[in-house]
């Protein structure tokens, strides 16, 4: 009888501990990325620079960190620059939204790419298509993002002409 009572108490204790453990530990929730802004920072004979800003929401009760960014830049649905991979390390506090900004620099594969784009209209549309890895020490998730913008034809022409380095021709800014 005594053994049965100790056994029952032991089983209740184990069940209680298991319930507290399972119910007390909530499953981590995936953060979300919302596109904010994209800005051309440079257009040169070497390539193009784009600054991207995203709003990252961390719905968890613990902080997360951005780990890396992987992206490509597609200009006028014709020219793809990338992939671009770079480490990143911004803390995302618990239960809050944080503006995350990073610069992507892509090089032209060949000068013909600038010429091809510069012959279009007054602006050339571009898309930054990528993923941001967010997580902690042991668990990470890749979240996609996509932003659109435009680069001016004048910027592309100036970059192309500056790349020619014709003696006597001043640099165009």
- Level of helix content? 10-25%
Fold-level CATH name: Immunoglobulin-like
Q: Which architecture does the CATH hierarchy give at level 2?
A: Sandwich
Q: Supply the number of structural domains.
A: 1
Instruction: Report the principal-axis shape.
Output: elongated
Rg computed from alpha carbons, rounded to a whole number of angstroms: 26 Å
Structural class: alpha+beta
Poorly predicted segments: 8-24, 164-173
Largest sheet: 5 strands, antiparallel
List its traits:
173 residues; Immunoglobulin-like; 5-stranded antiparallel sheet; 3-stranded antiparallel sheet; 25% helix; 49% strand; elongated; disordered C terminus
Structure, explained:
The relative contact order is 0.19. The model is unreliable at 8-24 and 164-173 (pLDDT under 50). Helix 2 packs antiparallel against helix 3 (153-164). A hairpin with a 3-residue loop joins strand 3 (64-75) and strand 4 (79-87). This protein starts with a helix and ends in a 9-residue tail after the last helix. With 173 residues, it is α+β, with helices and mostly antiparallel strands. The protein has three helices and eight strands; from the N terminus they run αββββββαββα. 25% of the residues lie in helices and 49% in strands. The protein has helices spanning 2-24, 111-118, 153-164, and strands spanning 32-43, 47-58, 64-75, 79-87, 91-92, 96-107, 123-135, 140-152.
């Amino acid at each position: 009888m005594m053994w049965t009572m100790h056994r029952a108490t032991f089983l209740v204790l184990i069940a209680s501990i298991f319930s507290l453990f399972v119910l007390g530990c909530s499953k981590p929730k995936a953060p979300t990325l919302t596109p904010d802004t994209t800005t051309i920072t440079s257009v040169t004979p070497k390539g193009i620079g784009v600054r991207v800003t995203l709003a990252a929401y961390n719905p968890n009760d613990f902080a997360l960190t951005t780990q890396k960014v992987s992206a490509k830049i597609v200009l006028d649905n014709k020219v793809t620059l990338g992939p671009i991979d770079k480490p990143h390390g911004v803390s995302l506090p618990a239960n809050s939204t944080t503006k995350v900004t990073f610069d992507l620099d892509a090089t032209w594969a060949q000068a013909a790419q600038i010429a091809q784009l510069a012959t279009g209209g007054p602006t050339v549309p571009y898309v930054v298509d990528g993923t941001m890895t967010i997580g902690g020490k042991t668990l990470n998730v890749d979240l996609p993002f996509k932003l659109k913008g435009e680069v001016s034809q004048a910027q592309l022409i100036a970059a192309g002409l500056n790349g020619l380095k014709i003696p006597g021709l001043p640099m165009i800014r």
